[in-house]
Amino acid sequence: MIGFGAQLSVHPPAEQFALVQRLEALGYDSVWTGDHVSFHNPIYESLTLLASYVPITRRIKLGVAVYLLALRAPAVAAKAAATLDVLSGGRLVFGVGVGGENPKEFELCGVPHKERGARVSEGIDVVRALWRDTPATFNGRFTRFTSVSIDPKPVQQPPPIWIGGRSDAALIRAGRQGDGWVSYVVQADRYAQSLDKIRAAAAAAGRSMDGFTAAHLVFITVGRDYETAKKAWVSVLSKRYNQDFEPLVKRYGVIGTPEQCAEQLERFRAAGCNYFLMSAIGDPRDERLQHEAIAAEILPRFRSS
């Protein structure tokens, strides 16, 4: 079965909580947030935000796509993530990525920008060791400790770690270390090629791909027609990422009527995607209506088949 999550934009707290509860009622499998310490738009701290959803939901998975692990000490990240998994009864999906589009963020956190990939690869191993072992020992380039335990351990043993990114380094990391992969701003043909690279990296590392989740972050705008949806898509994403998205709309947008959007999603399913993270692009005041339309008119097309 194809999984569906919703990645939400930032709202005032009461609106944020009401929207999450509505997503669970609509049948979404998971709710997601992005992650930055410093960004050109307001953004909540990711694990803190997901923890606020725990007492107001019961079933829906809580995911971060993707947590910029290089910006934090991996032991602190492991402790916070383990706590969230325990409090939620085992509902965390820990997406991890390198980031780097905002170098000032790394300066703020005292992390050399050029070390971010190496720090993430090592940090994943540190997090897993601390989640698993009592006591744990690790001797790496950036982190070293002997006979240390963090408790309580996560409910899930271990929580799934999905690797985000589209570079070759990210794809190799996903194959060697990931329980899943999250892509973004790629086309379906590149998605299929990327999965082949992930499979090759997993095989080289002697890892099985059984149970591996192949996800895609979808920038989607459902509208009464293509042109209306396109206008909203370009306007919102250009402001969000501080660049012109007009040249990218035909390559990376999932835009139009529900039928048109479903046709575009089908290309990714055919390429091997089995989990969609739906980021509804439009006026934040319309985000609930967008997700209600997606739940009513798009999700059933994939779940019924």
What do you see in this structure?
It is a single chain. With 305 residues, the protein is an alpha/beta fold. Helices cover 45% and strands 19% of the residues. It contains twelve helices and eleven strands. It has helices at residues 13-26, 46-53, 74-87, 103-109, 116-132, 168-177, 188-204, 226-241, 249-252, 258-271, 287-297, 299-303, and strands spanning 3-7, 30-33, 61-68, 92-97, 136-139, 144-148, 161-164, 180-183, 213-222, 254-256, 275-280. An eight-stranded parallel beta barrel has the order 1-2-3-4-7-8-9-11, surrounded by seven helices. Helix 1 (13-26) packs parallel to helix 11 (287-297) and helix 6 (168-177) crosses helix 7. The longest helix is centred in the middle third of the chain and has 17 residues, at 116-132. The N and C termini lie close together (8 Å). The model has no long low-confidence stretch (mean pLDDT 96).
What descriptors fit this protein?
alpha/beta, two-stranded antiparallel ribbon, globular
Topology as a string of helices (H) and strands (E): EHEHEHEHHEEEHEHEHHEHEHH
C-alpha Rg, in Å? 19 Å
User: The biggest beta sheet, please?
Assistant: 8 strands, parallel, barrel
Q: Counting H and I runs of at least 4 residues, what is the number of helices?
A: 12
Query: Roughly what is the average pLDDT, rounded to an integer?
Result: 96
Number of DSSP strand runs? 11
Strand residue content: 15-25%
